[in-house]
Structures are given as C-alpha cells and as structure tokens.
Amino acid sequence: MSDEDDDEMPDLIPAEISRVPITIITGFLGSGKTTLLNYVLSEQHGKKIAVIMNEFGEGDSIEKSMSVGQEGELFEEWLELRNGCLCCSVKDNGVKAIENLMTKRGKFDYILLETTGLADPGPIASIFWLDEELCSDIFLDGM
User: Fold this and answer.
1) Where is the CobW/HypB/UreG nucleotide-binding domain (predicted)?
2) Domain range summary for the chain, segments of one domain joined by +
C-alpha cells in the first residue's frame, strides 16, 4: 500500500435527510444580518430557501416584498429569485411561523430565521430541544 492510497478520500453515499435544517441568523442592530441573508439568497446554490423574518426594515428589496395584513395576521409571499431559489418569506413570530411554514414542506430545502437585533436567541434555540413534535420535522443546523 502506498502513501497515495492513504490520501484518497472514500466516496460518500448521499443520505436521505427527512428533517429540514434551520439556521438562526442573529446579531445586534446593524451587524449585517440582512446583508448576509441577501448574500445567501443571491448566490447560485440551487437551494429553495424559506426565510422567516420577525423585524421590519426600510429600503431592503427582500423586506419590501413582505408585510403583515391590517389585522396583524401572518402574511407570506413566495418569490422566485434570479438564482433559481424559491424563497418563501414569512413575517411572523415564534413557533407558529415555523409550524405554518412546515405545512408547505417540499417547496423548500432549508429555513433561515432572521431575528430582530434586540432578540435573545436563547429562547428561540431552546424550542428545537423542547418541542418534540416540531423537532421531528426540522433541526437546528446553526446559529
């Protein structure tokens, strides 16, 4: 056996992922959360990404396309982005937004949750350990 054989990586077998990954984007006001989100949504990655935003911003093209109805009810809009990403943007707070989004499972591969700059991410992250029913469908991929 040669040294070259030791350096070769084995072929990986793709695994069926039954749960949808969710990443929480958090940070102080002005830290670049929405800039990061816009970067991810404009890259050529071939993923269908659902976005949950719980803050209102001024001047951002993604945020301008979303609003809450006059009665404060959940409003969502599906956007086809130039990179082929089918982006579902939801403006709502809490577990209810994720549960409502999961009723459309299959339309997206990944969830990004952008918090307000004033939010403590601890309670948000804890729902993924405390809500067993929710965790059967999604998993916290990163924060």
Assistant:
1) 21-143
2) 18-142
